[in-house]
Amino acid sequence: MDNKEASHAIDALTPAASSSDHSISTPQKMDNQEASEAIDALSLTASSSTPSTSASQMTLEEKFKIVRSIGEECIEEKELMDLLAKKPQPVCYDGFEPSGRMHIAQGVLKALNVNKLTSAGCKVKIWIADWFAQLNNKMGGDLKKIEVVGQYLIEIWKAVGMNLEGDQVEFLWSSKEINSRAHEYWPLVMDIARRNKLPRITRCCQIMGRSNQDELTAAQIFYPCMQCADIFFLKADICQLGMDQRKVNVLAREYCDDIKRKNKPIILSHHMLPGLQEGQEKMSKSDPSSSIYMEDEEAEVNVKVKKAFCPPKVVEKNPCLEYIKYIVLPWFNEFKIERSAENGGDKNYKNFEELAADYESGSLHPADLKPALSKAVNKILQPVRDHFKNDQKAKDLMKRVKSFKVTR
Fold this sequence. Notes:
The chain has 408 residues and is α/β, with parallel strands linked by helices. Helices cover 50% and strands 9% of the residues. The protein starts with a helix and ends in a 5-residue tail after the last helix.
């Protein structure tokens, strides 16, 4: 496939930003407080009521600030602004391997991010990467078990409050979609593979939870080429994934350069929450003490938070503070500390900067912060517990998932 053929093939898979020629006017100015309020209004506690501003009523800058707020990094911001100006409903791609129980970062952060994207008028395609989990030897490569895990994960997002009304969120199973359009998918995978040397592909192995030093199977070497192809196959304008998926998203942009394709997928990489123990840069499903699972009981959450690494006066790389910054504050728009008068009395934080300053100074102690964090997390998780207790289908799915042996 030469450059021109490849570019035309992908153009057929990915619609142009708009069929009409829009000039991009300077967006209406919005001050920091207005932007903050627009984003805060999208917390899941607020999403039970109809938002006061629909996507069609938002200014370009309002949409940009909401979408951009998801990413720790954006490649490139100007391209994102142009896309939002030209296309009424940009397509955002997110994906996951059904590989075991869901921890709070995957459950809550994804729900928050999806709700922000749909509020700004985006369509979110969530790729249930069952074939990819099989390639990566998850659940022992048993596709039937992988499917059960995928169904369980969807039940969690429904229960926690992901806004699935209308058609703005679409769950797609990779095996079914690829089989139904194999004539489009596999030539694209082959062209990406042909244009990249093996060292470039193995540098992407982080997307599978692997390192460059791991002994990879042939299937795992093929994996990055397929994930790169997914972006074009799903007609994605934005890749909305974690920082650990950054390398393969950059590979997709480089592929566009190779085939002389102008419109590149925009990369919006969200923050990765650390594990609860010291030195854990990422949550680990193989270590139950590393993370809080979405259907953990209240007592389990309390124990995990109590044992979590949380050194006094240290803000940097403090997992408890990261939970507050990226989960609790976006969810409730506040963080409540309850303590006796002699210990400073109750305090209600509305932003992370104020909380971090108090913690660093020592006026907020871990002994007061941890119980407040446990209480907030348990409040978030209670609807999920209720769903898996009262819904028979969900209960059966969870029982089966807990019985599966996690493999890697």
